[in-house]
Amino acid sequence: MSIPVVPEFFHLTYILNPGAAFGLFVDQQWLFILVALLLIGCVVCLSRELSKQPPLLRYGAALLVGGAIGNLIDRVRLGKVVDFFDFRIWPIFNVADIAICVGVGLILLAMFKDQGEVDD
Is residue 1 part of a domain? Predict the structure, then answer.
């Protein structure tokens, strides 16, 4: 099912994705569930240390974990992830995927920013 929002550019398309980003590792649900749980556990265990880190790193970790939880809920409930943002030139994705990508980007930015401050 696909609903054109901006025809030929952006549609809302309902799909159930059995893999990870770009359809990689299809039907490896236990792997994805394990990785998500490990990530969430690590962030919880490191929460005291994270609270002392720069905002970019904290926000990145929060977005990464939030996205992982969002996709984890779908994987446990449905065995697949519901994707729906369809820009027609890119694989279909969801809000959790956006959170994961932005979160990783913020973490990398924080790491590079911190590295630059150390070298100065």
Answer: no
pTM of the model: 0.87
Q: Can you give the length of the chain in residues? A: 120
d(C-alpha 88, C-alpha 27), whole Å: 24
Q: Is 114 a catalytic residue?
A: no
**CA 50 → CA 40, 45, 58, 62, 79, distances in Å?**
13, 9, 6, 10, 31
> 80 and 17 in contact (C-beta within 8 Å)?
yes
| Residue 86 is among the residues annotated as catalytic for this protein | no
Range of the domain at 27: 12-119
The residue from 83, 86, 114, 119 that is catalytic is 83
Instruction: Determine the Cα–Cα distance for residues 61 and 76; give it in Å rounded to an integer.
Output: 22
The reply to whether 6 falls in a domain is no
Q: What is the pLDDT of residues 68-100, one digit of tens each?
A: 999 999 999 999 999 999 999 999 999 999 999
Look at residue 5 and tell me if it is in a domain.
no
Of 27, 86, 97, 120, catalytic:
97
| Residue 3: inside a domain | no
